Amino acid sequence: MFVHSPVLSVGVEPDPRGRREVVALTYRKDLRESPYSPQATELGLGLFHQVASVLVGGTAGLRSVELPHQPLSPVSRYTEFFGADVKFGCPAAALRVERRLLEKEFRGADEAIRRLAVDYLAGRHTDPERLVSTHVRRALAGSIGTTAAAIGPVARLLAMHPRTLQRRLTAESTGFAEILEDVRRDLALRYITTTDLPFGQVAAMAGFADQSGLGHAVRRWEEASPGEVRRRVRGTS
Question: H or E stretch including 29?
């Protein structure tokens, strides 16, 4: 997936609803690029669903579908497409499937050829999972709005000295301040465009000291106010 697009990833994670016989096949976007897009997320998860259905021979075993945003169309259109219950306002875009599907074997599968293909791709493309900057972004995304966004706590979380962390980030052609800006931008624009939260609350959740700080940042990113960005995305005047 990271060869197709370094900002996209799919994964197998524990069921967010705590069912042991179920896993979540997640579809995520890295925080380094453009902000969260409900339409792009639906398109990506829909394609993920279609590929998975072809591989396993249908939708049997699909328990439900989860989307981080609110519905953009009548809910019936979602359930008709996926053939399962669809829930909105969830932590991540995911297909909740029965764990037994992970044990399926495909006819014609050849582990040796697969290994050669994976090694070939890995030798010519950088897996974001190997980058320190990826783990810094995740740490910040999980802590902004609840704790101070500083390099010290993040370095401790990654078990390294702050100066070592900064050197590693410099080697990846980035820095802590740049990553923090990217994460705040993604969080702020996601809350602005996918929720009706007051902008003062959006500011706090995205790690800004006040609503004024949020407003200045959004104008720098989008050349528009938070209200204008929200109206623009929803097609209202």
Answer: strand 22-29
Sequence-distant (≥ 6) Cβ neighbours of residue 231 within 8 angstroms: 237
- What DSSP line would sit under 55-104, residue for residue? HHTSSTTEEEEEESS--SS-HHHHHHHHSSEEEES-SSEEEEEEGGGGG-
Cβ(29)–Cβ(41) below 8 Å: yes
User: Residue 45: which of 105, 6, 96, 89 has the closest Cα?
Assistant: 96
pTM across the whole model: 0.56
End-to-end, the C-alpha distance of the chain in Å comes to: 38
* pLDDT tens per residue across span 149-187: 889 999 998 999 999 999 999 998 999 999 999 889 988
